[in-house]
Amino acid sequence: MKLSIxxxxxxxxxxxxxxxxxxPLANGGQEITSDKRIRASLPTIQYALDHGAxxxxxxxxxxxxxxxxxxxxxxxxxAKLAELLGKxxxxxxxxxxxxxxxxxxxPGEVLLLENLRFHAEEEANDPAFSAELAKLxxxxxxxxxxxxxxxxxxxxxxxQFVGKGAAGLLMDLELKYLGKATTNPDRPCVALIGGAKVxxxxxxxxxxxxxxxxxxxxxxxxxxxxRAQGLPTGKSLVEEDKIELAKSLLASKGDKxxxxxxxxxxxEFKAGAENETVTEIPEGKMALDIGPKTIEAYAAVxxxxxxxxxxxxMGVFEMPPFDVGTVSLAKAVADSGAISVVGxxxxxxxxxxxxxxxxxxxxxxxxxxSLEFLSGIELPGVAALTDK
Length: 388
Prior knowledge:
Elements lengths: L13 E5 L6 E2 L4 E2 L3 H15 L3 E5 L16 H11 L4 E2 L6 H4 L8 E3 L7 H4 L3 H8 L4 E4 L10 H5 L1 H4 L2 E3 L1 H15 L5 E5 L4 H11 L5 E4 L3 H8 L14 H11 L3 E2 L4 E4 L8 E4 L7 E5 L1 H12 L3 E5 L12 H13 L2 E4 L3 H8 L8 E2 L3 H8 L5 H4 L5
Helix pairs in contact: 1-2, 10-11, 12-13
């Protein structure tokens, strides 16, 4: 268990909260097209304010490559945050230095630092830069799970200079749900794993196979497994250099793995392409979704589960009519009543497209971070936090 913001006395203290405000921007960096990440941070920020803290917020935004870039300024974020909090949010001209120190907030005030990645030292986890960041606070809190797989100055380096590090409320939730799902899940426990490449998910399959009762494989990665079984895959995406790996996984985990038994195929990869459902993929055709028999079989396993872990779509869900498998299973997960933990990225988009987000127990805010966590890889930003 990691130290939580709720374990600390914040009254009269200056609290540095590493947040994930890496929001999508348009119109030359002037317009935020989704404020979801800002909203996700509000409970932690409000908690700190309600408990008498002065709040310093820090985040990266985009890839400015270590130099100031007006199109990646935090200015629109400060304006949106002020609107959501219903109180002023000051924007610092930088993230370290005398001008920032002069703006440090009193209890009840909020200061947002300029983009951390305007300094190359942030991604380099530079000790001197970390020490400068640490001068801005009494207490360090990390609420940016989406950046926890990066060992940067604001996620790892500065903690040693502050003395200890606590998890924010959002980080707490991530660790609670992902941690339980991967160590002590309510059973039966099933993992639904999709996406394009076996190579992207190999550590996850290895790690989750130790915990779950069934692994339901979908997406293009399924066809590398089917080829490994000697079955025809037509023009479907297959990682030729991973066939032997797939064979070894089938040999060692075969009792837990379930693979598609039918497929929706087409001659070309485009929306609305003429398609058919087959049990054997013909030459000249590519599989772009799981078929109805597979949906039925997978849904039955999901229905009887107490915990469902999902990472990756079952087909080309962004392109109708090849979204049926993903949407159908998203609804099955929502209807199951199981504790459902969904990785970020495409998995989040998939449940959103199915309209079931509100019925999922926990949707991770970190695509890459949740992938690594589910793969059993220690996240530097979590490891750096203080144990209770």
